[in-house]
Amino acid sequence: MWTHEKYSNFTVVSSVGRDGHHRYWNVGILSESVFEIRCDILPTKWPFVITNSKVHGLLICGFKESNLIVYSPIEQRILATVPCGGGHRAWDLTFINDCDSIYFVCSSSSNKLESNEIPLHGHHRLLKGFHSMIVNCMAQVTDELMITGSDDTTVRLTRFNDAVDNLLTLRSHISSVRSVSCLTLKPNVYIIVTAGGRAQLKIWTLNITDNNVYCEESISHLLKSKQEKKPWRTVVPSNEGETRFMDVCVQYTKTKSILISVGCSDAVLRLYNYDTNNKTLSLIEDNLDCNNCILKILLVQLNSFHYVLTTDTKGFVNFWDISKYVDNSDVDLSFTPKYRHCLHQSGINCCDWLEIENNYGLLTTGGDDQRLSLSIFHYEDSVSLICNEYISIHCSQVTGIKVYNQFVVTASVDQKIIFSSWSCDLNSKTVQVLPFASYFTTVADIHGLIAHKQGDEVKVIVYGQGVETFYADMSSLTQPPPSSSSMQTPQQYSVERVTPALELGEGPHWHSPTRSLYFVDLHQGKINRYHPESNSFFSAKIEGYNDVTLILPIEDKADMFVVGLGASLGIVQWDGRSNTTSQPKYEKLIDETPGNRLNDGKADATGRLWVGSMGSEMEDNPGHYYKRRGSLFSVELDGTINKRLSNVSISNGMAWSSDNKEFYYVDTYKFAVEAYDFDINTGDLSNGKVIFDLTANKVAGDPDGMTIDKNGNLWVACFNSNHILKIDPVTGTLLTTVQLPAYQVTSAAFGGPKLDELYVTTAGYQLTEAQRAKRPYSGAVFRVTNTGSTGFEGVSAKVHVCPDNPLHTI
């Protein structure tokens, strides 16, 4: 509980509780009355500390899943997420006001999070009075001054330097502000154009002096009516109740007036002329029909011709020749675009242009299809596309992009900022792009970015649900850096969804005899098969069982499988096509600890079964499990069960080196990958050691399932995250991170005719509706190709039925 402000008759107090809410209370001093003023939902399921930081103001700390969350109710967003194992309570954390630090317990040791580490990368917090809703747009006035527009209908002038100062707030839009553009009128005087919902356009004159900032509204315009569409349209849009001005650009004409280009939701590109002397606005063209809702517009110059480039919701770009209005010439304006091309499979959210040399330009675009496109255009008698290149480096919609010199900066809804280098060869008509550095931002629902070079540094401002700024030292990033845990050179891999979304896909096993991938939907009691050659997916329910944790084919016994059934192993028969199986037979209880269940399982090179267990889920803390209650077992050749490891929290990934001398293992709550000396004859494990620590390497997620490739590298899936890690177990180096469009990555196995396709299972377990909407295919199986690696086929279990011992390996 925290006391905010005291008045003569009452005090404002706030509190947090285990229901995940932050409440403000009016506490009467004389009347002794208490009533609730406001209630906010917090992003942490277990909030327990509310305090005031000297640097960041009011903070709420708590735990969510396996992370410590530091949340600012002032800014209404998460400031820091620190992996620490989860399952914590209030007494695990202390906030020290004097030194502005947070101490928390992790792995039986004390850890310290300094205030200046919340978060990394030079973040500037937002002040009270900044936008209260999503920031839709931002334009740069000077190196430090930015104009922003928001869903809260305000336009704000803010200085982003060593501090964030909100200088002006303009409140006269009747709906959300979707776009803003700026043009220098004369020294220290600027024309600001804002546009948004209800087809409203405003023009402001901004004056900046040493001691004052003054902004005057010059024009407020509302679109009166829609014009008749031109006959070249091939698709007639639905009748919208409201036309929205989606984007706006401004430029000078030869007559010193200002040409304002506006992209609209009714698919029309409208052109306005603004006379700065008389302060009059005229609609001079509204017959440029783009066929689809316009998302972004861009001013482009090729040779001596001026174009407005539009992007739309269907992935098209259109080049419109507006030279007539810019040059005040007598050339007739064409009512069809000079060039039209589809660059993306769906909407293009962001774009930028760079002139390469005479008559050549580079267009960079990012879309809802999660792809970054680089296209080289040329102009002689007409606009033509010379070459283009696509790359999928984000796992969600690309919403921000900036190109300068040989670098491209992109931002995505996945909260990742990626720096790439690009190059082109005009003779061979090729363009290449190589990502080399990435950063995670605390800004959710990113709507765009501003980036500009300052010496050897690039200042980047990301905006959406909040604003964050950071600086990147490009002097050290002119070449792709060596491999490290925080900065990688990603492979040009491809990701493809091959199955529907399940609840909790797990345990992928590639079976070469049937050329199929087998896996389970754990909490649905189902086993599944995917057959790539026919692109067919089959699923069968094992009646009477809620948890089916693993599936392994039995060697030389067609349609027979070992399956994990709660805490037991059993055998079922399934033809791989029907929606039901035989009833399980020969069940054998593996873990006798009450409440425990089995988890991952595999067979070693001899066909010996290995299976691990885990504790039950905490009733008062869903998504968390009791620690150190599980074990790792092997079912020996004579059918006996050996407990190989004890005090296991969540037994997960297993893999063996090609010479069968090393056993690699994941106990999830250790947040690490371990290696053991392995005796293939006896199954003995010894000399365990950590070979990769996710927490120490600042890698997000919980290590889950695992496989190994023929080069000896491990591929580790990360639950509560969207990636797979490729790790060199000898050096402990993170080699590659593969991003997937899912929130929970569970396991992986190599498969396909050449064993060079990585099949990845994912989950959509206990996701919120908002999470499902953003990543609807969480729970699907994905096929990753072009990894540059090949793996091993799955090893079948060697099992036969023995009357005296139900599950007997031979």
Automatic annotation (TrEMBL):
Ligand binding (substrate): 597, 599, 617
Primary enzyme class: hydrolase
Cross-referenced InterPro entries: 6-blade_b-propeller_TolB-like (IPR011042), Regucalcin (IPR008367), SGL (IPR013658), SMP-30 (IPR005511), WD40/YVTN_repeat-like_dom_sf (IPR015943), WD40_repeat_dom_sf (IPR036322), WD40_rpt (IPR001680)
EC number: 3.1.1.17
One Gene Ontology MF term: calcium ion binding
Pfam families assigned: SGL
GO cellular component, one term: cytoplasm
Cofactor note text: Binds 1 divalent metal cation per subunit.
Main localisation: cytoplasm
Annotated compartments: Cytoplasm
UniProt binding sites for a divalent metal cation: 506, 652, 704
Coiled coil region boundaries: none
Residues at the active site: 704 (proton donor/acceptor)
Keywords assigned by UniProt, alphabetized: Calcium, Cytoplasm, Hydrolase, Metal-binding, Zinc
BP GO annotations: L-ascorbic acid biosynthetic process
Family of this protein: Belongs to the SMP-30/CGR1 family.
Protein name: Regucalcin
Organism for this UniProt entry: Macrosiphum euphorbiae
